[in-house]
Amino acid sequence: MLDVASELFYERGIHAVGVDTIAAAAEVTKKTIYDRFRSKDNLIALYLHRRDQAYRRWMADWAVEHPRTPPILGTFDAMSAWMTRYGKRGCAFVNASGEIADPEHPARQVTREHKAWLRGHLHDLATDAGHDDPGTLAAQLLSLHEGATVLYSVGADLTAPQTSRDAAAVLLAHGGRAT
């Protein structure tokens, strides 16, 4: 049921997919869905949590499989590969936040946690690389990541992941300073 709901939420949008649609596609009853997940809101949060965990594993696996790539720049390569394979509609977290206005909705909490994790991951990589101000660098790199996913997902620039990687390389070459 979660697999079916996840695919439908990502492909069609959260508000466009009702519990009836999920039940029919999963070949279960609505009661079964509510018995298992209690609410559509919980199902949405679980979908995003699962995607968050998959992305974290993807990033970790990418780093192991590409040890010659500088780790910070590797995050852009991993993001690009993820988007090509799993992210044709862009960032599931940004999409969900665009559909769900309530800042207290459980899906918004999962989204905040995902973005905080990515920023923290970039901070850790900057610290490991010996950058003087890893917090600022992490914020800059996160902005490049997020900009790339949005531009890619709306079809404005399918080369945005590479463009953002190139910008990150320039930033890193200048010690994390834009000038």
UniProtKB/TrEMBL annotation:
Q: Which Pfam families match?
A: TetR_N
Q: Which UniProt keywords apply?
A: DNA-binding, Transcription, Transcription regulation
| Domain (HTH tetR-type) ranges | 1-55
DNA binding happens at which residues?
Answer: 18-37
Query: Which InterPro entries would you find in this protein's record?
Result: Homeodomain-like_sf, HTH_TetR, Tet_transcr_reg_TetR-rel_C_sf
Q: What name goes with this protein?
A: TetR/AcrR family transcriptional regulator
